Amino acid sequence: MPTRGERAGHRRHPRGVRPGHRARRGGRLSLGALVEEHAEALEADLLRYYGVDLLDWHHETLSSRRLAVLVRHLPPDSAFVRAREGEAAEWGLTAHLLAAVVDHLAIANWMFASANRDEYADPPEAPLPVPRPGATDMSDGPPADRATDGHAPTAAELARFFG
What we know:
The protein is an all-alpha fold. It is 52% helix and 0% strand. The chain is rod-shaped, with a radius of gyration of 28 Å. The relative contact order is 0.07.
């Protein structure tokens, strides 16, 4: 009786896979590239979260489908997710919302201070937004022309803005 590998034909074929067999997106070939690229992080995470050794996949006691499911559902704080997505993986929805709240509060305080400052006092500096991972543009803050020319909004501009 032929073994499992002989039935599938993958042991006799170059690169270990028959043409068209699991070579599609999400198949063993793309999983193999993913494992090769992030082997250490995956090995650590599989042992930490699931108690599964990555060598089981190489010894064919862990199926590619099961490995793909385990990898796909690793938590956001896993070493694999951090290695793959970088600093952005450390920022969840809560962190982004909190940064937006801080930015809006800083702008509101800046506007209040600008409107209530002494007529002859220097205008307050416009606030800078909280840096986001992967963002090099700080466009979420007040308009750049206002921040660079030292012009604070007048009382009439603020009244017009707040209606």
